[in-house]
User: Fold this.
Amino acid sequence: MRLYQLLLALLAGGCVVVAQPAVDSIVNAASYDPAVPRGGLVSLFGTDLARSTLSATSTPLPKRLDGTSVLVGDLELEAPLYFVSPTQINFQVPFEALGDRLSIVVVTAAGRSRPFLVRLTAAGPGIFTRSSDGKGRALVFSPAFEPVEVVSGGEPIIFYATGLGPTNPPALSGTAGAAVEPFHRLTYMPEVFLGEMPARVVFAGLAPGLAGVYQLNVIPQTAATDRLWIRSRGQISNFTDVGIRAGQNVTNARGTIELLYPTARADAEPVGYSPHLLVARFTARLDIAPNADAFSVAAVSDGGASSIIRFDPANDTFEGIVSVPAEAPRYGDFSRTGFSPVDLFSCHNLSDGTPVCQPFPNAIIPASRIPPAERRALDLLPLPDAPVAQGATGELRIRGIARRGSSFAIDADNNARLSTFAGYVTVPLPPAPSRTATLKLFIDGHRVASTEVSYRVGPYSFQF
Assistant:
């Protein structure tokens, strides 16, 4: 299947309309997160949205498909449409839409839906995946546009995303990226992380021939894990997977990884604000080969939480970089972090059915709201020793000795300061009743442990 057809198929996710259309939810079409910026592609879910299933076949994208249109904002701009069906519409939020809160209305022959309110973000990066739901293996290609199963350090790759914002020259809504110069390059260059290492971005702009889809050409470094993600204007994309090459530098590699806070226990207090603390712990044991080259041990989870240990056997050394909370956020003060904490206990429905949640004044969570279990988890974490600039977390740097031909352990008795790490996780709004944290442990490119833990978020005074 050609690349263009493949991406169109992902956007054509997926009977006759006899009732007025109704909108249930709107999410990023690539990540399935609620972060939606201007120019981004979104998936709208509901009922009686179209008479049949129909996809756009060319660009500029049509503004009506099978009698269905989507009106955006107070000016009721008609959105460019990729796909319509009775239960789902994929469309582009117009670059020209005004305001930070937009009403979305679906119009069919049966009438108009009730407005659905969307709060726009400056960026809402989402990476397209093979499963088309924002999870699992990313769509990755070689410079020849052939599918890539295994990514190697230094070898260029191409992948696709949406929600990365304006371009230069500006692109009109519904129009495809240019196939020749001047390309529609991004105004704000995103950061790309592959295997916990920053990748060099060679090109980032609208994909030639596609509307609202961005192409990123990058050169990765040697990967410590299989994760691929983007940070754009402070917003983090979905965490996706790539294939990586495992090394031959260790033997007898084994380990465990667990979530310490929040927990999945039924009697645990639910998360009451966003962002919230996430604390994880791991153990690892391995034998370093007599002829070992450089390799890594990497424990990772949501919110940028990680402990990355890089070994340099040629010099008998290692260096660990552990993410830990900065001092002020430990006491609820996020005023200098770029986060605006939201009180999840305040969430409720407006009279028109729109769910809203109130921010904490001055970006400070009251001390009375920080649960004892979180304070106990924070007691396990030392303060960062690397400077923290406008961030909720900093770095704890730990150096030591690791010789070729020796055994190495990370646990409560050995190199313990490497074993516990933390980050702050943003809860999408409106929040769902539960969230799932994904934790992974890699040793020399081998995934030796992973787990997913669900925990409660809420409670809520509104219904979806």
